[in-house]
User: What shape does this take?
Amino acid sequence: MSEGVMTDLPELKEEEKAVLHDQFVYQYLLEHPAFFQHHPELLNRLRLPHAQRGAVSLVERQLEMQRERIRGMEEDITRLMSIARQNEHIFFALNQLHLDLLSARQRTDITIALSTFANRMPHVHACTLLDFNHEAMGDNFSGLQLVLQHRLQHRSYYFGRLNKDEMATLFPSNIHSVALLQISQGDKPLALLAFGSELDDHFQPSMDTLFIDHIARLLAVVLPRYDQR
Assistant: This one.
């Protein structure tokens, strides 16, 4: 990286020389990480551009970057703690739902247990459980069949928004996003479980299915006991 090396280079434009010089310095510092330990006097002489303060020393910039990393870590910890508290809340509510479903004496007890569970969930404002028959689905049977074909044709669950006609078959107009879950025993569909939220983005396709899969398996065991078809 000496001047001799630079003078031996072919004739280059000044911009190209500057780029090559930067590359030499960059590579040298990578290969000699203790350089500034041997030349500590340079640290306070180096000046770096700063958006608010014009220019700062390398030491000041390093301290600022360290503070930014600490703030980022604190934000990550806060977010993870919030997720942990939410998962803990869901776990206890799911545990109570499990007990309520297993102790249900009649079909209406299942509906009540699911509604209670939904009320305990943050940002969940509605819940419905419909058997796959004309009597349970009522006048909305044809519309619900379309929902099943469109949203659950190749999978057992759906998270997200529905169009206006689809939503009208399940929930009132204040519900904007849904979680749909097809309850099946083997290849036999038993019921449709739907949760609704007033928030547009509460239920999203990227959501984890761990808890809702557990509910599906549990209902697949419990519902046949009260099969009214």
